[in-house]
Amino acid sequence: MFYKIGNDLIDFGNATIDFGNTMCYTLAVFITKGRSFMYTEIIRIIQAGMALDRKKVMSYALVLSENLRRKGEVKYADRIHDLLNECNGSVATLDSLGTKPVDSESRLDIVDVTYPKTSSEDVVLDARSRDEIDALIRCYGKRDELMRVGAESANTLLLYGPPGCGKTTVANLVAARTGLPLVTARLDALVSSLLGSTAKNLRKVFEYASQRPCVLLLDEFDAVAKNRDDRNELGELKRVVNCLLQEMDDFSSESIMIAATNHEELLDKAIWRRFSRVLRLDPPKRDDIGQLLHLYLDGRTDDVLESGKELRRIVGTMDGFSHADVRTVSLNALRGAVLDGRESVGMSDLIRETYLFRNHSAADEGAFAAYLKEYGIPNRVMHSEFNIPLRKARDVSKSMSASRRETAKAKGGA
Asked: Which of 3, 53, 104, 116 is most buried, most CB within 10 Å of its CB?
């Protein structure tokens, strides 16, 4: 794509610079003639990107922006600045977070820093959960007013419940709505085999998060917050939990702390009292599953989501699924349609993927055919789309009909 700046024709190519576990930045790369004042910054940006040096990329890109501004190219200077903000939140916040802490044994980073863009429309929650999260965000926004009247800010949240029900998504939503960076503790690097190192790493995480306002996410929280009365654990656990309790007590009201666990029964009793809000996230109900399907597949189906009858059938196959399960099945169905050269997902695609998700295989042709029939897939579709012989499909249909008649007869006799 080419743009005119002054008398020069400039090619804006998209260069994606990969920063490993940090993030990817997309910067405009300028290739021009007669603009020597830009060459130095361009070369330095590329060198810093190849060296995975985020700070230098940001610094040199800002210098390039200011050089353009001084030359009167305000539009393009603003564009560079906006790109940096879009990729990283506020440019000014990057330096304030400083170098990420590492585990002294493995030398791995023990936190990840991201700037989520999750919107409320991207998250499906029940009314109570949404109200609790809204209240947390409102309390944070009015924390100074609350402090003036002697009410502590409710800036700590414990999320628990089955896996895949949106705990990490909620943390991303809170960070996006407050405009704060999300600092996620990496439990794989934080928990160390060296005596005393886990507690030290935990302190490093809280010290890092204290450098500026942020949302601190402690996922898999039970790994560092287990019950100290557990006879199967060594003294190291008590040191870790005692350290955690102290750090939580000293946590800044300028930030938000979110802990998430799938095993709330393992948490130490003292941990629960440190949270101003506790929220259980459950698997989605049927109405919520319908919303999730619209979220992931809206505009990509052959109107099955618009038909109340067909939507109810599909939702019925996903009863008991977590939010993550619904997403997995939806995207698998979409991938299958694309690989088959189709532009839209049909009801049979979703029914098949729910069966495969539950059973991991369709090797039992009779069981697969019975499942398809149960949820309204016609014999001809079983044959044309899933290569089930028509004779087999008819036999399964007859067997299911006979079974229903016997059941009805038995109930009538009773």
From this structure: 116
Specify the pTM.
Answer: 0.73
Q: What is the pLDDT of residues 65-118, one digit of tens each?
A: 777 877 777 777 778 877 776 665 544 444 456 688 888 888 888 999 998 888
**How many whole angstroms separate alpha carbon 120 and alpha carbon 169?**
10
C-alpha span between 240 and 199 (Å, rounded): 5
- Report helix, strand or coil for 158: strand
Distance CA 285, CA 132 (A): 18
CA distance 217 to 230: 25
- pLDDT band at residue 31 using 50, 70 and 90 as cut-offs: very low
Place of tokens 């287990």: 226
Angstrom distance (rounded) from CA 111 to CA 337: 38
Cβ atoms of 84 and 62 closer than 8 Å: yes
CA distance 139 to 142: 5
User: pLDDT grade, residue 264 (50/70/90)?
Assistant: very high
Structure tokens given for 359: 């059973």
Residue 220, token pair as written in the block:
């898999």
Where is 27: in which H helix or E strand? Answer: strand 24-31
The DSSP bridge pattern shows strands 24-31 and 182-185 to be unpaired
- Residues paired with 261 in a beta bridge: 160
Q: What are phi and psi of 353, to 5 degrees?
A: -70, -35
Let me know: does 315 contact 290? Beta carbons within 8 Å.
yes
Q: How far apart are CA 374 and CA 367, in angstroms?
A: 10
